Give the backbone structure.
Amino acid sequence: MAAKIITVFNQKGGCGKTNISVQVGGSLGRRGKRVKIIDADPQNTATRWLAQAKDAAPFPARISNLSGLGPALHREIRADLENFDYIVVDCPPSVDSPIAGSALLVSDLAVIPVVPSPADIWAAVAAKKLAAHAQGTNPSLKVVAVFNMVQRTAMAKGALDVMSEDENVPVLKSQLGLRSAYRECQVMGATVHSVPRAGAAVAEVEGLVDEILKVMK
Ligand SMILES: Nc1ncnc2c1ncn2[C@@H]1O[C@H](COP(=O)(O)OP(=O)(O)OP(=O)(O)O)[C@@H](O)[C@H]1O
Ligand SMILES: [Mg+2]
């Protein structure tokens, strides 16, 4: 079966694109799926993260940095469809970059990470516009938002109320909390599953993967 393609994007920097790409890609790999993470960001964050893995504990997904392909990225993604079960594309934050738009042309699911703060919610409007534009060419593209770095505050509740008004882009029930485990696992070249006593983070990542799979069905 051809790979399902999940593109994680948002022009807003630092909202958790790479964290979600690596956690979701790695978790699917841990489930025995053949996964490729495409690092489409010239910052190389995902590539550097996975490079930290020791030979004795390899990361459970492949990685390629294809940021140099720019608007031709979708062709290279398509070329690998038969070799993987899932391809996860980690996009750069730049508004000017053609990369996210290219990846969305061939994607099954667009994931927009959003930190529950006003600035991030404002920025999400531009990301949603880009996804809606891609849906013009790729009508089967589904688009969801995921809250990341959530602290149980009134701000998160308010953000959820605002974001939930948009019926075209549902906010997933699964949220990732603000947890040090997400930073610790970068040093290990791993997902949160490898961090001691990170059960809460593991549970929310696994819940997110389950929900993403359900949405893509
Ligand atoms: N849920 C979280 N809890 C704690 N720290 C987090 C969480 N998600 C991301 N981070 C940290 O916040 C920083 C930014 O996250 P990340 O690199 O995933 O964002 P990004 O959207 O990919 O950034 P960029 O736009 O630069 O590519 C990183 O240091 C990351 O480890
Ligand atoms: Mg990133």
Observations:
- The helical segments are 17-30, 45-51, 73-79, 99-104, 118-137, 154-163, 181-188, 199-216.
- The chain has eight helices and six strands.
